[in-house]
Design a protein that fits this description.
The protein is mostly helical. The chain has a domain of 59 residues. Helix content is 57%, strand content 0%. It has three helices and no strands. It is elongated.
């Protein structure tokens, strides 16, 4: 008598991460369209950085979003300097 090995089909992939990425993308684009493409792109870059190694497909979605945000920034002419924790440099003469 032979026994057949039964295999269970793999569980379907969890759709939650893809849904979260979709919601994040929509929120980033809304922030950009609201006049804050630079801030949205900075947030997108942080998300991309955390996704790129373990979730390259999701990272690519965020990468495409960053390109859209960069075009928004260029169209709005909102080239803002990056934030800094240092005080601004002034041209004050030294005493």
């Amino acid at each position: 008598m032979t026994t057949a090995t039964r295999t269970t089909p793999p569980a379907p992939a969890d759709p939650a991460p893809a849904t979260v990425i979709t919601v994040l993308r929509e929120a980033l684009l809304a922030l950009g369209e609201a006049g804050h493409p630079v801030a949205a792109n900075r947030l997108a870059a942080r998300a991309w950085s955390s996704l790129r190694a373990a979730h390259p497909t999701h990272a690519e979605t965020i990468n495409r979003t960053m390109h859209v945000l960069a075009r928004m920034e260029a169209a709005q002419g909102s080239h803002q300097p990056p934030p800094t924790s240092h005080p601004p440099i002034t041209n004050k003469e030294q005493p």
